Amino acid sequence: MRNFYVLKLWLVSCLIAGSITGASGQSRLSKEEIPSTPESRIYDPDQVFRTKPEVLARMSERLKRLKADYDFDVYMIVYSGLIGMDVVKLGDQFHGEWLDERSDGLIFVMDVQSASGGEAGRSHKLYNGDFIDENLMPRIQVSAIEDAVKRSSLEMQKETDVLLSLEIFIESLTDRISSQPEIDKSLNPVKEDANFMGIMATGLLLIGLIIAITAKLLGGVEGKAVQLYRFPDVLVGERPGAPNRGGEISWTDYGSPSER
Q: Of 31, 65, 157, 246, which residue is most buried, by most CB within 10 angstroms?
């Protein structure tokens, strides 16, 4: 499986006149050429947004909110004509430098001068399940991300302005990612589920213990309620002349009412 997503932007107009992306020659940047992660979450080395900084600010706010609300990383690198560079490999290279192979975040490399659009770097190992033995999995399935990227790229094609189309892409993408039900979970859903099952098992054990103790207590009370107590058989000797002397049965006949 290729560890990137192809975005066909089909840009209607070009922002700056220049050469279309040439054949793949130098496909990677040196580490010195890759800056630290931008606070805005958008790296614009060719100053594509210099005429519309407000668009850049709105896009940046979207990406920051996604990180703050869901701890999901999305960065965008925007070029205007990548001469001899391969956006496919650049996306993965930026991901490796800015994030790591255990991050489920995405890094988009966009070339506004190319009809082919751009690429999204991701963690090849994480999304392929290489860390499942470590209870580490991405929160969103690959198919769901592919669908979000595809639909967002279709949305941006409705806008003829290049910069506004990029903004539409980010708006659509962040909305679709944040709407995924799994995004609220931690990056460690396997371990989280295991912990939940452990808590449930402990809870069930406690409930069972309480029921057993209660049943035993109630059973003891019920047993006592139906228990018969008998006076012991005692041999009592006769006491002649004594009132109610033992050993004898005395009785008095008052007669029946009909005889009175």
A: 157
